[in-house]
Design brief:
Layout: H1 2-12, H2 22-37, H3 44-96
Helix pairs in contact: 1-2, 2-3
Amino acid sequence: MRPLLAAVFLAAAGPLTATAADCPALQQACRAQCERGYPDPGDSGRAGCAARCDWEGATCTARQALDDTSAALQHDLKPWLADQAAKWQRFLDGFKAAPGGRPAEPPPARPEPGIAL
């Protein structure tokens, strides 16, 4: 009976295709299947089946949150970081060469104030 329940849960919507709104519905459908498969509320099989449904519901929600975070990183943060890196690189390149492509010369040394001997 347990392989059948797992197949029903995964066939309803695979874990990679479930959206955040689907996860609670899938979990409830799995629990309903457990109740039909194990009608006695005190049956240890029912408790194990319900625990598996809860675990799969939690992993579905976590996977969806991870997918959303990854998408946000790819869409928003990665281009911004690339833009910032390019700006810093241009800023640092300004110190490497003076206009005209020649290396920048260090500023002339100034004498330190103090007592001259």
